[in-house]
Amino acid sequence: MTPEHDPTPNLEEPREALEAALHEMKRVIVGQDAMLERLVVALLAGGHVLLEGVPGLAKTLTVKTLAQVLGGTFRRVQFTPDLVPADLVGTRIYRPDSGRFDVELGPVFGNFLLADEINRAPAKVQSALLEVMQEQQVTIGGETFPVPRPFLVMATQNPIEAEGTYPLPEAQVDRFLMKVLVDYPSTGEEAAVVGRALGDWAEPRELLSLENLERFERATQSVIVDREVIGYAVSLADATRNPAAYGLGEIEGFIEYGASPRGPIGLVRAARSLALLRGRGHV
């Protein structure tokens, strides 16, 4: 490897800073180490996360803590059946005194957006997130407004209640980089949670700036990805479209639609981000 391609000097600082940020979040969030790591990976990869788990597993507290440690703004939207798209992205409001329309921006204009119980809102409301998740901008009345960077949507859905819920549109599911199944903590971890709840909760410190996080996001581009790794990611996606060609014909009936090209793109980006988090210069 030539000196100009040696990633070690550039990747050591991000690894140490991101590890310190994760450690600070673990002072508040107990028993969800995998979820925390995947959130950081999604941030570095520029993706979004869909969390599925029963209530009470610190999903809201996780996003709030993440925003505090990284110095970003936190927004929470409780999705309900009577929600309308303007409640998310914003709308134009007529001002009688001036005779003009002003734009009122919605809660999506923050660094970290928690879409709580996203499957409780109808499809037209869920679809209002499509543009902002992919393009990181919102169009209101023909005018485009970019959201702050970095921008992470963490949506939750409750798997134990199907009544009064709406399935997510395929186009929106495709825009999530990861779906993370949040499980119960172990008995030891749960005992630690109960013990902390009896006293004062730890107040997380801001350890990273958004500017540094964007710099670390750019640093993932220096992580080397071999062509064979890219080919493997593409093969995984193609196996969901043509399972019989990969000796998986018995599962073909369980697959309605295969992964889109966003699948292997997100897989490789997430692998790069995880390599950076682990201090490696290659995938």
Report on this model:
The chain is built from 11 helices and 9 strands. It has helices at 8-26, 33-45, 59-70, 86-89, 123-126, 130-135, 170-173, 187-197, 210-219, 227-241, 262-277, and strands spanning 49-52, 74-78, 90-95, 100-105, 112-116, 137-140, 143-146, 152-157, 178-181. A 5-stranded parallel beta sheet has the order 2-5-8-1-9, with helices on one face. Strand 3 (90-95) and strand 4 (100-105) form a beta hairpin. It is globular. The two termini are 15 Å apart. The relative contact order is 0.19.
In short:
This protein has helices at 8-26, 33-45, 59-70, 86-89, 123-126, 130-135, 170-173, 187-197, 210-219, 227-241, 262-277, and strands spanning 49-52, 74-78, 90-95, 100-105, 112-116, 137-140, 143-146, 152-157, 178-181.
Query: How confident is the prediction overall: mean pLDDT?
Result: 86
Number of DSSP E strands: 9
The CATH class name of the domain at 3-72 and 150-191 and 208-277 reads Alpha Beta
Largest sheet: 5 strands, parallel
Strand content: 15-25%
The end-to-end distance, rounded to whole angstroms, is 15 Å
Contiguous helical run count:
11
Layout of strands and helices, then pairs:
Layout: H1 8-26, H2 33-45, E1 49-52, H3 59-70, E2 74-78, H4 86-89, E3 90-95, E4 100-105, E5 112-116, H5 123-126, H6 130-135, E6 137-140, E7 143-146, E8 152-157, H7 170-173, E9 178-181, H8 187-197, H9 210-219, H10 227-241, H11 262-277
Parallel strand pairs: 1-8, 1-9, 2-5, 5-8
Antiparallel strand pairs: 3-4, 6-7
Helix pairs in contact: 1-2, 2-11, 10-11
